[in-house]
Amino acid sequence: MRILVTGASGFVAEHLLPELEGHHVTGVDRNDEASGPCDEFISFDLVADDFAKLPSDFDLVIHMAAARADWGVDDEEFMRDNFVATQNLLNYILHSECRKLVFVSTVAVYEKDKSRFKPVTEQAEEAPYNAYGKSKHLAEQFIIQKCRENPTLCVNIIRPVVIYGPSNPSNTGIYRAVDNNIFRLIDGIYNDRFAIIGTGTSRKSIAYVKNFADAVIFLSDPVEGYEITHYSDDPTYDMHTLCSKVNSLLGKPKRLRRLNKSLILPIVYILDLISSVTKINFPISRSRIETFMSNTDFDAQKIRKGGYTQRYSNDTALSDTVAWYLDLRMTEKQNFFFFKKSKR
After folding, report:
1. Is 2-164+205-231 a domain of CATH 3.40.1370.10?
2. Which residue spans of the chain are classified as CATH 3.40.50.720?
3. What is the reported pTM?
4. Which of 46, 108, 147, 192 has the smallest count of CB within 10 Å of its CB?
């Protein structure tokens, strides 16, 4: 099968591309090289470049290119890279021989703390609460509209929760390797500067990057029309359990501290102000505090009922990620607390 993969220089691509061996894979990204093996790589901007530069004989497109961050990306960039780029790509697909698309979206299309009463299913009402979620939601709506107008179009929209796991900085760049809330959690616990805010009972769905790559492949043969599918690993932990597991894997003897939200917020506001001036991505921010305190519990039984099997357990995934983190500290020899965004 001939497969076009956008976002081929990214974090997920680093783990997905090796799993596509046996297919003819063309990687596309604004960067100069792919983060994993592919048969052909094209440096290409989905917003600015001429699609005549791309071949048109693909059997499948896996669309992962996106702006994704909770810091350092403005609303205009989210709209350009997530919505406009998807519009352009889908119009290209509709004028090509390809009719199959896997679109990597996000659970940020739902309102914040939607899962405070029960896990969110694919049938939940969409109400994105930030620019990232809004841009992805608009992209989804555009895809769905085109599916209704073109009955032969076959699309799987996959909405993952927070994706984490090892990454080789020489592939993705050091900033992308560490720009992740789970990485920040591990780093904070290791350096004894982490505390559970509130009760620690908020539930957190997480997704190991290798499991997510498997899920993308599992969904890579969509049928006519469109399907929306969540992805998260099983089981979902509460915040206290997740932090305790990381604490144990790091060999920390002390119990985790707890703080009241009202005590930490004044510090967070000051750090956010400093961050806006210095462009330093501090691990503590209002956005991250709110994320850790919110329920992010998403039902991913649909993909499992369809036959998907999770290859790596949460314990294995967290253990591998902590081991990678410890190795990264030795090789990079830098402070991840004061960390400036940089290009790959």
Report:
1. no
2. 2-164+205-231
3. 0.90
4. 192
